[in-house]
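Session log. Operator J.P. requested a structure for one protein chain; no other inputs attached. Running the standard single-chain path with token output.
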Amino acid sequence: MYKNKLQNKTIGLIKIVLLTLILFLPGCRTNVVVNENVILPLGTKKILIFPFKNMSAVYGENVHSRCPICGKVLMTGKVAEDADKMLTEQLFVLLKDRKDIKLIPASQSQGVVPDLLSGNKKKLSELDLLVETGRALDADAVMAGYVFRFRERIGTRYSVDLPASVAYDIHLVSVADGRLLWSGHFDETQRPLFENLFKLGSFLRRKARWITANEMAVSSLKDILKSFPVSNKPEPKQ
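Structure written below.
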């Protein structure tokens, strides 16, 4: 009898220890918003990937900043060096194998934007800049991104002093009329699982560890682009 009681107490203690460990392992608080079930307008084939813009460099850190395309407000923060370039490159890589669209790399816009911003055209709005750049490069649509926060993890996979934090959005704009065709938003600061038990799926997918800002950004881009619209192909003639 005593032996059974001792065994039960031991099992109970083990369960408590395991539960405590799970609750304090890293989970995440995620805010991912995308437009789903969108079909590209007829004839939208060539898409220009416009370079990501560092919004912290424009407005400063730790301020509420409004996206110049959709108006969504996000908190800015530290943006790691070349994070905007990394996001731009990853966006191109993740879309380049699509068969229904043709991508124009961001590098081609570098020779166009300075001319558009010179002289009388330097007062172009952000939306007009995207549209005019797209027209100059014979694109049907422009994909533009804005990074508000890209703070790297301080610590290791299993112990951190400061977790990774990333916030950005991406937009697809029609060159023909400046219409916003599709958007994706991401805003996350990784937290211990016990702060948000509803994010158990993300916790398991990330193997119960603290991830880097790069890992967070690439993973979120993959998730967001799952909803990227398909090309509206003309129906075959009868």
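Operator note: The domain at 44-153+166-184+214-224 is CATH 3.40.50.10610 (Rossmann fold).
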